[in-house]
Automatic annotation (TrEMBL):
Keywords: Glycosyltransferase, Transferase. The keyword Cell cycle does not apply. This is Glycosyltransferase family 9 protein. InterPro entries: Glyco_trans_9 (IPR002201), LPS_LOS_Heptosyltrfase (IPR051199). PANTHER family: LIPOPOLYSACCHARIDE 1,2-N-ACETYLGLUCOSAMINETRANSFERASE-RELATED, TETRAACYLDISACCHARIDE 4'-KINASE-RELATED. One of its GO terms (cellular component) is cytosol. It comes from Rhodovastum atsumiense. CDD domains: GT9_LPS_heptosyltransferase (cd03789). It comes from the Bacteria. GO terms for molecular function: ADP-heptose-lipopolysaccharide heptosyltransferase activity. The keyword Glycosyltransferase applies. GO terms for biological process: lipopolysaccharide core region biosynthetic process.
Length: 297
C-alpha cells in the first residue's frame, strides 16, 4: 500500500498535519509513504517511520513547483492521496481514494481530522532518531529547564523581549521550576538572531540554541524541557507535539484556530490587538496553571 501525503510549506501547519500521518501509520501498518512539503518543513518528516520518499517543493513562479511532484505522482496508481493544501494536483493523479482539505471554521487539527472523518482529531507528534536525542542530551545542562521561543516569522506576533525575561525570572524564582535555566530557541537567519538577542543578553545563564538545531534535534531538546513559552510559531507547535507543557502567546493571530495542540497546552491571549497588550502577570498566571496540571503533585 502506498500513500501520497501533500502537506504544508510552513513548519506550524506541517507539524499539525503529523497527527494524520501518525493515524495512518497506526491503522495502515503495511503502508509506505511519500510526503511532499516545502523546504523549511522538511525536517518535520525526515525521521518519519516508513517514509519511502520525501519530495521538497521549492517555490517557483506560476506554480511550476508542482510540476516535478506531478511527474512523480502521475507515474503510479496510489492507494490513497491525502492533500492538506486542497490543491488541484490531488485530482490529477491516479488513486483509489483521495482525501482533500476543505477549509472550515474551528481549530486547524479539527479541519485536518475532517479530511479522514476523524473526530476527535489525532494530536500532532514528533519523530526523532537516537542521534537527535544524543545531541540534545549533550547540549542541555542538568536540572530544570524552561524553553523560550521569543521569535516568529512576523514581528506582529512577537511578545516584547523584556517580558520574556520577566516571565522567566518569575517562573524560576519559586515553584516546580525554581532554579530553572532558560533555553533559548530560534530558527536560522539574522532576523531570528536579532529577535532573540535581547533575551539572551538579559539572561546570561541561558543556553543559546538559536539557529543551531535541526527540527528533530529541536524536538528532542523540547522533550527534555519542563515548559515551553513562545509566540505563535512553528516552534510552539513543535513543542506541543513533543509533549512539552506548552504556553502559546497570542495577540493578532486567531488562537481559536492555531492554539498549540498537545497533551499539556494553554494560551495567554492579549487583551488588545497587539502583543504589547499581553501582560507578564497574565502570562505567569497561565503558565502556573499549566504547570500545576502537567506536573504530578
Amino acid at each position: 500500500m502506498r500513500i501520497l501525503f501533500v502537506t504544508s510549506n510552513r513548519i506550524g501547519d506541517a507539524v499539525l498535519s503529523t497527527g494524520l500521518l501518525d493515524h495512518l501509520l497506526r491503522t495502515c501498518p503495511e503502508a509506505r509513504f511519500t510526503v511532499a512539503c516545502g523546504p523549511v518543513a522538511e525536517g518535520v518528516f525526515i525521521r518519519m517511520p516508513r517514509l519511502e520518499r520525501l519530495i521538497v517543493m521549492e517555490k517557483r513562479p506560476w506554480g511550476r513547483h508542482w510540476l516535478p511532484l506531478w511527474a512523480h505522482a502521475a507515474s503510479r496508481v496510489w492507494d490513497l492521496v491525502v492533500d492538506i493544501r486542497g490543491s488541484g494536483l490531488s485530482w490529477m493523479v491516479p488513486t483509489r481514494r483521495r482525501a482533500v482539505m476543505r477549509r472550515s471554521p474551528g481549530h486547524k487539527i479539527a479541519q485536518l481530522g475532517a479530511i479522514l472523518g476523524l473526530d476527535p482529531p489525532p494530536l500532532p507528534v514528533t519523530w526523532t532518531a537516537p542521534e537527535d536525542r544524543a545531541r540534545a542530551a549533550a547540549l542541555l545542562p542538568p536540572g530544570p529547564l524552561v524553553a523560550l521561543g521569543p521569535t516568529a516569522n512576523w514581528t506582529g506576533k512577537v511578545w516584547p523581549a523584556d517580558r520574556f525575561v520577566a516571565l522567566h525570572r518569575a517562573l524560576s524564582a519559586d515553584g516546580p521550576l525554581r532554579g530553572a535555566r532558560p533555553v533559548i530557541l530560534a530558527g536560522p537567519g539574522e532576523q531570528e538572531r536579532a529577535l532573540a538577542a535581547p533575551v539572551l543578553a538579559a539572561l546570561p545563564d541561558a543556553v543559546d540554541l538559536c539557529g543551531r538545531l535541526s527540527l528533530p534535534e529541536a524536538a528532542a531538546v523540547l522533550t527534555g524541557s519542563g515548559l515551553f513559552v513562545g509566540n505563535d510559531s512553528g516552534l510552539m507547535h513543535l513543542a506541543a507535539a513533543a509533549g512539552t507543557p506548552t504556553l502559546g502567546l497570542f495577540g493578532p493571530t486567531p488562537a481559536e484556530e492555531y492554539s498549540p495542540a498537545g497533551r499539556h497546552t494553554a494560551i495567554a491571549r492579549a487583551q488588545g490587538p497587539a502583543m504589547q497588550d499581553l501582560s507578564v502577570a497574565a502570562a505567569l498566571t497561565a503558565a502556573q496553571s499549566l504547570i500545576a496540571t502537567a506536573v504530578p503533585a
